[in-house]
Each structure stands twice: as structure tokens, then as C-alpha cells.
């Protein structure tokens, strides 16, 4: 939802410092494909990259939506790493460039506790205040902008000059996860939900919101159905269709995961038996502990151990 340029522009206009937002030509905001987040962190960080002219020069706006139950003490460092990756890609595409476009960093935070980690890179450096003052301008500087949704109450969110899809997205990020009373809480936002439906491509955006609600919320289905039925036939139809599709997709995923797990287990068993036979032929009968390790190993471990059989002088060298 936030990746749509019109939606993103309204969010940026609302949260960036006014003097900076006024210099950005958000009418020419464009989404850039790709993610710069470390693979192991993608379960908790979602990132979006945009370009827009800034006072006549090219600029990037990098938005990271942070999904986790605690604040990240090293977020300023991670943002610096992601920004360097953006510049690396920029230079790879323009090897003759002599200057770098600015990257404006924004973190959107949502959970039940306010952000309490540093937003300034210098604050995560392990220095006492006197030494930090002595180092002065030689320390790296980066301060990301923070949109802490935990500190935005409903009145402030209603007053924020953003598009209806963005307002509802921010609200759901703020209140939906694990909320058994979500249907009741959304009653006060019926007009905004209808406003999403009335927009061009409104049904698609509405389905996106419904999908998020059904995946992270814990409100009873009957209550949600009653809520959306009260919004009109289009909302009720979207809700029922989304629920049916998610249910069917879940069943299909479950079957696929079961088949994949079965195939993987079968392959692992076959490789383990073959490796055990090779080891027995070279080193003699295997002790029970070694057999247990072989049969408990992953396919990657089995491949590594099998490649060592021919050159190893003893069993320990293979299974190290």
C-alpha cells in the first residue's frame, strides 16, 4: 500500500520536516524496485525506495517499516548499511559518477511500546562523552527520521493529511496485530474504510487491508463479517472473497509444505544411508553416536561429509 507513489507522497508530506518536504517534488515520486535489507532480517524489516527531485537534483527516499516487538538498538547502523547498498547500486549503474545523490532515511515504527533506541549513529558508538567530544567531526554522522506510530493517537492520525489507504494502513499497523477487539475498534473508522473503496482501484486496496487484518488480527470472523457487511455490499463481498481465498491458499500451502517436507525427508534418508555405507566400507563398523549424527544431519551436511570421505584419514575428519 505504501509503495504506491501517490500514497507514499502523502505519507512523506505528512512526516518529513516541512522545509525538506517543500523542496521535494513529490508529484514526480517514483518507486524503485528491490530490497536492501539483510536476508535474515526480512521477517521484521520491510523497505521501500523512491526517487524524487530535491531542489532540482536527484534524490532517494528510503523508507523502512519495522515489525518487531522491541526496538532495534542498532537501527541507525542498519540504516547506514542499507543506504551504502543504495549508493553501491547507483555507482554500479553509473560507474563514471563523481557525486552521490542524497538518501533521505525514514523508519516507520509500530508495536505496543514507543521507540526507545537511538536514532543517531554516534549514539551507538562505544565511547564515553569526553572521548566522543574529542573525536568530534571525525565520527560518522547519521540520524534517521522516525515515524513512531505508537505516539500517534487516533485524533492525530485522523488529522494527518494522507490518502485514505495510507491512513488505514497506518491504523492497522498500529492496532491490528493480535487484537481480538479489532472489529469493534474499526467501527469508528467506517467512513475511512468506505473512502478506500470509493477510490480508483479501491477494491484492490481494500482487499490488501482485509488480507492484513485476517493474517495478523484475532477478532472473531463473525464480528469482522458483521462490520464489513455494514459498510455495504461491495465491502461484504470483498471480505467473503478474501476469506475464501486465504483459506484455500492456506490449505494449498499446507499440502505443498507437507509434500515438500516428505520429499526432503526421503532424500535426506537416502543420502544418510549411502554415506553410512561409504563410511563403514572405509573405516569399519560405525559407532552408534556416529550413526545418529549421520541420520540427524541436514542434506547440506550430508553433502559436505560425503565429499570428505575419499580424502579423510579417519571418521573424525569426515564428521568434524
TrEMBL record:
Q: Which GO terms describe its molecular function?
A: double-stranded DNA endonuclease activity
Entries under Pfam families matching the protein: Transposase_31
Q: Which GO terms describe its biological process?
A: DNA recombination
Segments forming domain Transposase (putative) YhgA-like: 1-198
Q: What is this protein called?
A: Rpn family recombination-promoting nuclease/putative transposase
